[in-house]
Amino acid sequence: MRLLKRCSCGPTQNAYESLYNVIWSKCPKNKFCSMRKLQFAAVVGIGKFNFGSSSTLSLCECLGLKPGHHGLRLAATRQKLRISNSQQAHKAKETSRRQKRKAARLQREQELQDLEGGSSYAAELF
């Protein structure tokens, strides 16, 4: 039950789940794809997870492709945005705002659960 409470705030529970989210965003589970495309999605996803948008440029260079001016500029812009978002997420004001939103959402969920007559899923409920 404690694990479910920790997961209810929205973010993933651990780094592996976050990595899987990046990979599956490149190659959705609900659509069929070849093994080759899945492997490519895994390589791109791991690179993006570890190194950000610059990994795409490195991958292009490994494949013998020369990234253009616009590609370099886009990668730099995305990298700056990623760093900015990361710094913003750690600010105290943002943290308190997230906590207030979470508390309001949990209160709404509790009110809905009370209206429905209790939990419909719990251990040993059946």
From TrEMBL:
UniProt superkingdom: Eukaryota
Name of this chain's protein: Uncharacterized protein
Region (Disordered) residue spans: 83-111
Organism of this sequence: Plakobranchus ocellatus
